[in-house]
């Protein structure tokens, strides 16, 4: 079978020339490791063969020309390897398509080749727009190759194009099919949803109830005690005081910075005394801490340095802070390695030591809380699915009410083209099931997974707008193009897979190492 040469009038001749230039750009390898190939262990291939594809082959010189146009001396080794494998794979796919074209008789004729060559702009006189043989010869000579090599390459590309034209033939789409697809795309659904999960309060109560049973069981005491010993520090809290602080530093103090580097120790002591006097006369501590403070963090937080104990501040400061309380809120000036500090009490926490018995129930919740939640969720989902499957709406409503699960409206009208629902998450599973809803009150007959949440869906109302005929025709064209693309891609993969299955593709191992 032959194609009329008019079929190729839409093919860009520039694409042929560009592809040709890439393949014939140069003939020398520029990457390490391919200069000399070990002729052994080549799966029966000649060392000068990059790959065998059916009855044809890709020679190493041809492969080198392609790869040299895509690599440089600075290409990292891992990236170099990936490019090599991508290039040989692409060249193999082209050879497979060319072979398939030949097998069904779609071979480029001399007449078709002549028409194509004469149509390439590089071979046409700029003034007359006519083909000139001398321009053709000059171009071939500039590429340091023979006319036969050029002809062979161009012929293969034309045969590949023929094969692709066959694979991309339009797939007929009926008007009724386009109308059905349009209905799927445009139908609007007003929906309600109920998240299949116990509300936090109900879940907490049930976990606490189950955890108590676990904690009361003597068989579980060793597990609980081991967890207590491993996390004992959580239950032993030192006395702490939340305080405000003002630091007046000087140039020889530790961590001195900013204005403090211009201040002597004596000057710092005098300034601290002045601040203390203002505080005692009623000046707001937070105001002074924000204005005059060499501790930048405290300055930016109106003096607040959080809860303090001996583990997170120097010993002299800790002693002064822990001595403060509601009746004695202001510390004297404290001399520290960082400068002179004044503290103000805001809140205190007494030391706490919780015994095993104090926290046994909390430990039980840590150990079995997730397991209990998973079981409760699984049991709840089964109950709801069973009620929906049996179309027992009374039972379903009873389960929802018992577990304090309520119906809520989806805030936005839903269409199957929507990929996400704000209240629930990804809508893929909804698109697959929403057309099972026929009448208001209908419920999709299973719990749907939205990624972050699971929910049941109920129809409130739906609307299917009437689409004009011209839009239906436009949709038909889109569906035909999409179908052709899918068919071509699937066919190409199938052809290649068949070659691989029948061991018709052999790659020189040197290209894969």
Q: Could you explain the architecture of this structure?
A:
The chain is α+β, with helices and mostly antiparallel strands and 513 residues long. The chain has 3 domains: 5-170 and 494-511, Orthogonal Bundle (Triger factor/SurA peptide-binding fold), CATH 1.10.4030; 184-197 and 379-463, Chitinase A, domain 3 (Roll), CATH 3.10.50; 239-350, Chitinase A, domain 3, CATH 3.10.50.40. 48% of the residues lie in helices and 14% in strands. It has helices at residues 13-23, 60-68, 77-103, 110-119, 133-142, 147-167, 175-186, 200-216, 221-230, 265-280, 285-291, 296-300, 315-322, 356-389, 393-402, 428-433, 469-501, and strands spanning 49-53, 56-59, 188-195, 236-237, 240-248, 304-308, 334-336, 339-349, 352-353, 408-409, 420-421, 425-426, 448-449, 454-463, 505-507.
What tags apply to this protein structure?
alpha+beta, Triger factor/SurA peptide-binding fold, Chitinase A, domain 3, 3 domains, 4-stranded antiparallel beta sheet, 17 helices, 48% helix, 14% strand, extended
């Amino acid at each position: 079978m032959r194609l009329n040469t008019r079929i190729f009038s839409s093919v860009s001749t520039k694409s042929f020339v560009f592809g040709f230039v890439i393949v014939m750009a140069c003939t020398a390898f520029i990457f390490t490791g391919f200069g000399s190939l070990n002729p052994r262990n080549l799966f029966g291939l000649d060392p000068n063969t990059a790959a065998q594809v059916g009855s044809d082959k890709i020679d190493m010189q041809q492969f080198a020309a392609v790869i040299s146009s895509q690599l440089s001396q600075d290409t990292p080794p891992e990236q170099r390897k990936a490019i090599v494998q991508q290039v040989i794979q692409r060249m193999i796919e082209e050879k497979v398509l060319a072979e398939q074209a030949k097998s069904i008789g779609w071979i480029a004729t001399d007449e078709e080749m002549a028409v194509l060559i004469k149509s390439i702009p590089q071979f046409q006189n700029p003034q007359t727009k006519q083909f000139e043989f001398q321009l053709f010869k000059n171009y071939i000579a500039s590429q340091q190759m023979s006319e036969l090599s050029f002809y062979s390459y161009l012929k293969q590309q034309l045969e590949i194009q023929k094969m692709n034209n066959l694979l991309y033939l339009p797939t007929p789409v009926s008007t009724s099919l386009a109308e059905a697809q349009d209905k799927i795309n445009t139908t609007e659904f007003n929906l309600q949803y109920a998240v299949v999960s116990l509300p936090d309060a109900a879940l907490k109560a049930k976990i606490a109830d189950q955890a108590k049973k676990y904690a009361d069981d003597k068989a579980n005491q060793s597990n609980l005690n081991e967890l207590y010993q491993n996390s004992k520090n959580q239950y032993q809290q030192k006395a702490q005081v939340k305080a405000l602080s003002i630091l007046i530093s000087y140039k020889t103090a530790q961590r001195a910075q900013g204005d403090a580097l211009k201040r002597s120790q004596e000057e710092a002591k005098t300034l601290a005394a002045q601040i203390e006097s203002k505080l005692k006369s009623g000046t707001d501590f937070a105001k002074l801490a924000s204005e005059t403070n060499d501790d930048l963090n405290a300055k930016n937080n109106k003096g607040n340095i959080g809860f303090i104990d001996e583990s997170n501040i120097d010993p002299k400061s800790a002693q002064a802070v822990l001595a403060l309380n509601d009746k004695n809120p202001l510390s004297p000036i404290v001399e520290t390695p960082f400068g002179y500090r004044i503290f103000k009490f805001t809140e205190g926490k007494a030391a706490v030591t919780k015994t095993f018995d104090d926290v046994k129930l909390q430990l039980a919740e840590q150990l079995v809380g997730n397991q209990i939640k998973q079981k409760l969720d699984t049991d709840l989902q089964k109950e709801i699915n069973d009620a929906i499957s049996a179309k027992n709406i009374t039972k379903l409503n009873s389960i929802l009410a018992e577990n304090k699960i309520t119906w809520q409206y989806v805030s936005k009208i839903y269409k199957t083209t929507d990929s996400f629902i704000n209240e629930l998450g990804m809508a893929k599973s909804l698109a697959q099931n929403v057309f099972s809803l026929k009448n208001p009150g209908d419920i999709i007959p299973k719990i749907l997974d939205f990624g972050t949440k699971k929910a049941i869906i109920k129809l409130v109302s739906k609307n299917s707008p009437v689409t004009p005929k011209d839009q239906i025709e436009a949709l038909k064209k889109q569906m035909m193009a999409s179908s052709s693309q899918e068919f071509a891609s699937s066919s190409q993969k199938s052809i290649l897979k068949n070659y691989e299955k029948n061991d018709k593709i052999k790659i020189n191992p040197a290209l894969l190492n």
